[in-house]
Amino acid sequence: xxxxxxxxxxxxxxxxxxxxxxxxxxxxxxxFGYALDLPFVIVKYGGSALWGAMVYLLLALGIARLQPxxxxxxxxxxxxxxxxxxxxHTPWLDAFRLTAAGALLLGRIFSLWNILAYAMGIAAACLFxxxxx
Length: 133
Hints:
Helix content: over 70%
Radius of gyration: 16 Å
Number of domains: 1
Number of strands: 0
Mean pLDDT: 90
Order of helices and strands: HHHHHH
Low-confidence stretches: none
Number of helices: 6
Structural class: mainly alpha
Strand content: under 5%
Distance between the termini: 18 Å
């Protein structure tokens, strides 16, 4: 039994480390991507894929008992809901979306391409999830 607890703790620690790395990469790609002459597609949709991976990892940390595939399905549902939420507009919400935090958390413009990028990021996070090993 103690070995199971230790392996679970190691997996959760690795998920946390992966989450912090994904957040750092996502912020870096959005901040420095164009300065590094990365193509628009990499900056825009790479950041979206990393955002999807972040959602997966957050859910995996919060609901550790779920299987990785179930976590991926939940992450995709969250990501699609957030994207659909971009279609809803109120003055205070639009003002928040104009801030850096609002743009990073909620985004500004609805895009089906973002949903595809989220799905790719979620799939990659699920595939490389430390709990799968």
